[in-house]
Amino acid sequence: KFDEVGGAINKPRHARFEDIGGQDSAIKELQEALQFILRPDEIGKMGIRPIKGILLVGPPGTGKTLLARAAASFTSSVFIAASGSEFIEMYAGIGAKRIRQLFKDARSKASKAKKKSAIIFIDELEILGVKRGSNSSHMEYDQTLNQLLVEMDGICQNEEPRLLLIAATNRSDMLDPALLRPGRFDRQVQVGLPDKHGRAKILNIHTRNKPLDDTLLLEDIARATFGFSGAHLESLANEAAILAMREKSPKIEGRHFEEAIDKVIMGEKMDRKPSS
Ligand code: ATP
Questions:
Q1: Whose CA is nearest to atom 19 of ligand 1?
Q2: Residue 223 Cα, ligand 1 centroid: separation in angstroms?
Q3: How does DSSP assign the chain, residue by residue?
Q4: How many A from CA of 229 to the centre of ligand 1?
Q5: What is the pTM of this model?
Q6: Whose alpha carbon is nearest atom 29 of ligand 1?
Q7: Could you report the per-residue pLDDT of 145-158, keeping only the tens digit for each?
């Protein structure tokens, strides 16, 4: 069975677009695409082909999962999440069976919850959607991908609950071209690293519940964190608070953030070190 709320413990169950910083154009594009769920009659009357799949493309920790969750809240849809790696098995047919189950679960959960729509989120799509016949492919993988294509083609415009597939990847170049054809993942939304204003907004979001010193300017921290993702910035705010608490300082000051920046950068380097 698939996890209705999806994976890791540090990820919130619900997200709203207002809580996502530095992704204004991605949010705009996504909201536009979500009109297909919100206003199906109007779309149908215009003879527009409904969107079945949206691909979020960008580096790790930039908010792709948050965006998918926010899309579910925005459209009041059931949310069901899985990761590409969950479908990769050495035993023939198991991955394909799991894909079938995922779509079945989404339909039945939405019906039980009396929701009009369900959003299926697949993280790390490149793991199961790798180009067929390529080096990293494998016959079992191909079967799993074929099943995903079959399920996407089976999404029907008039069915209720309506289904929308949102997938995330940081390697869209690895994907099998069949996934990107019209009627499948034909909308790609870029979710890049945030710029300085985006970083300030994300820091603002993640320090809302923290006592900041009056002299601290989040813009200064944003300037010093070029290349940080949203996940890095969330971790930075948390580390700065821990450092302040350790010193028994009632407020989080600039120097706590400065020290925490080094910690986050060091942590990133350690994560990248190959294990021996
Ligand atoms: P991955 O590719 O590794 O799955 P992702 O792009 O899906 O990463 P998320 O899982 O959405 O990233 O982000 C992880 C956490 O980082 C979030 O729960 C949130 O705390 C923080 N975060 C990331 N991006 C943003 C953002 N744009 N605004 C606010 N918080 C963010």
A1: 231
A2: 20
A3: ---SS-S-TTS-S---GGG--S-HHHHHHHHHHHHHHH-HHHHHHTTPPPP-EEEEE--TTSSHHHHHHHHHHHHT-EEEEEEGGGG--SSTTHHHHHHHHHHHHHHHHHHHTT-SEEEEEEESHHHHSBPTTSTT--HHHHHHHHHHHHHHHT--TT-SSEEEEEEEES-GGGB-GGGGSTTSS-EEEE-----HHHHHHHHHHHTTTS-B-TT--HHHHHHTTTT--HHHHHHHHHHHHHHHHHTT-SSB-HHHHHHHHHHHHHHHHHHHSPP-
A4: 8
A5: 0.90
A6: 20
A7: 999 999 999 998 77
